[in-house]
Amino acid sequence: MFQGRKFSAFLFDMDGTVLNSGVVERVWGAWAQRQGLDVAAFLPTVHGMKSVEIIRRLNLPGIDPEIEAEAILKAELEDIGEVVSIEGAETFLASLPPERWAIVTSAPRAPAVRRIQAAGLPVPQVLIAAEDVLNGKPAPDCYRLAAQRLRVDPRTCLVFEDASPGIAAAEAAGASVVVIGAGQALETSHAKLANYRRTKAVADGEGLVLVQAEPIS
Question: Are 64 and 132 contained in the same domain?
Answer without folding.
Answer: no
